[in-house]
């Protein structure tokens, strides 16, 4: 038990419940939801596992000290008193990022600078040597979080945001983030037990995340590096053991994942990304205009897509475009659960269908809605009659 410690997984607004469920399923202890984060307890192996296996986490932080701050000196002195030599060599490199909600500390960059000064001064006073600053590939990445009077200093175990899975080489205008895509699919309740479709697939992010969910493939297997790989206590054997244990839990998938896009360049990018992710045996992408298609067969279909909002495409007639979405679903896609996400809340009125669910989410800084339309078997027949 002594080897366990507290960690905090950061996520997007509205994804706290899903992330907490993911953590519990992975085997985390003392899982507690916050706002845009979930805290939990585990050991070093679990820290590796969380970084590799969580779909809706952006970062995994390891808090090492928490204290009250009223003035700048409180921050400097407390940071300087931390035994940084336990985490970093004096000739190593570091980077600091900060988030602040405080009357004195109003600027995150300045807070990060004061933190860096305190760490560097400690090393310089101890042996005359000082670590370098390396914002891109530091040996140690440090996170400072000040909320009112409470400051928490954490080690960033992830490094680059965990949405950078490593399979995307090509993107379109305003691509959806991998974490957002995975969260929306999990929120939609898809479990890999039916066919799946993204009819406006862009660069293929939703398709890739759906395939990994269906097969229970760890989302961050293809990452080039996690921050903890540069730590003093990096254990490559343990990491490989955890990786192997996650890979043993992958499962077979017996349905189809289909992507359409009417842009030939998007289709090419999506195919490249799916191939990079080694998911091309599960995902089929076609050059199609969704509005000219209808569902093949009568089996249940699960659809998740991110249509243009108007910000992404100029000359888009929102009323006609969203009207066409409604008409295509109604006349061509019976026995389908169709989920779409949009930040254009006005546009939803033009779909002309009644949503059975509406969930508030954020796409970057845009407040959006994830909405569900249930297209029943027989609605087409009724229409014809």
UniProtKB/TrEMBL annotation:
Gene3D superfamilies: 3.30.2130.30, Vaccinia Virus protein VP39. It comes from the Bacteria. Keywords: Methyltransferase, RNA-binding, Transferase. Coiled coil: none annotated. InterPro entries: RlmKL-like_Mtase, RlmL_1st, SAM-dependent_MTases_sf, THUMP_dom. Residues 46-157 form the THUMP domain. PANTHER family: RIBOSOMAL RNA LARGE SUBUNIT METHYLTRANSFERASE K/L, RIBOSOMAL RNA LARGE SUBUNIT METHYLTRANSFERASE K_L. This is THUMP domain-containing protein. It comes from Winogradskyella marincola.
């Amino acid at each position: 038990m002594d080897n366990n410690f507290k960690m905090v997984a950061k996520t997007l607004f509205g994804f706290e419940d899903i992330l907490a469920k993911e953590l519990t399923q992975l085997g985390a202890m003392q899982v507690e939801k916050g706002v845009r984060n979930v805290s939990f307890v585990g050991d070093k192996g679990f820290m590796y596992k969380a970084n590799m296996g969580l779909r809706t986490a952006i970062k995994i932080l390891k808090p090492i000290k928490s204290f009250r701050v009223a003035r700048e000196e409180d921050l400097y002195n407390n940071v300087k008193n931390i035994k940084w030599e336990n985490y970093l060599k004096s000739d190593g490199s570091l980077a600091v990022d900060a988030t602040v909600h405080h009357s004195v500390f109003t600027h995150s960059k300045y807070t990060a600078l004061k933190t860096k000064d305190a760490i560097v001064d400690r090393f310089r006073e101890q042996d005359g040597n000082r670590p370098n600053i390396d914002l891109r590939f530091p040996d140690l990445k440090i996170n400072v979080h000040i909320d009112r009077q409470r400051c928490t200093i954490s080690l960033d175990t992830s490094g680059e945001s965990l949405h950078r899975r490593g399979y995307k080489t090509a993107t379109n205008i305003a691509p959806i983030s991998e974490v957002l895509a995975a969260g929306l699919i999990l929120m939609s309740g898809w479990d890999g037990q039916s066919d799946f479709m993204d009819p406006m697939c862009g660069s293929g992010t939703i398709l890739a995340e759906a395939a990994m969910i269906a097969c229970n493939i760890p989302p961050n297997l293809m990452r080039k590096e996690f921050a903890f790989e540069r730590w003093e206590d990096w254990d490559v054997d343990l990491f490989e053991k955890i990786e192997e244990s996650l890979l043993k839990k992958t499962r077979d998938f017996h349905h189809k994942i289909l992507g359409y896009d009417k842009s030939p360049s998007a289709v090419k990018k999506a195919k490249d990304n799916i191939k990079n992710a080694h998911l091309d045996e599960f995902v089929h992408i076609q050059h199609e205009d969704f509005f000219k298609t209808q569902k093949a067969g009568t089996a249940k279909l699960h659809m998740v897509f991110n249509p243009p909002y108007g910000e992404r495409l100029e000359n888009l007639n929102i009323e006609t475009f969203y009207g066409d979405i409604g008409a295509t679903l109604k006349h061509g896609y019976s026995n389908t659960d169709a989920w779409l996400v949009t930040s254009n809340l006005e546009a939803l009125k033009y779909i002309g269908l009644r949503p059975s669910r509406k969930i508030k989410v954020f796409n970057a800084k845009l407040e959006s809605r994830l909405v569900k339309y249930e297209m029943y078997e027989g609605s087409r027949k009724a229409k014809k009659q």
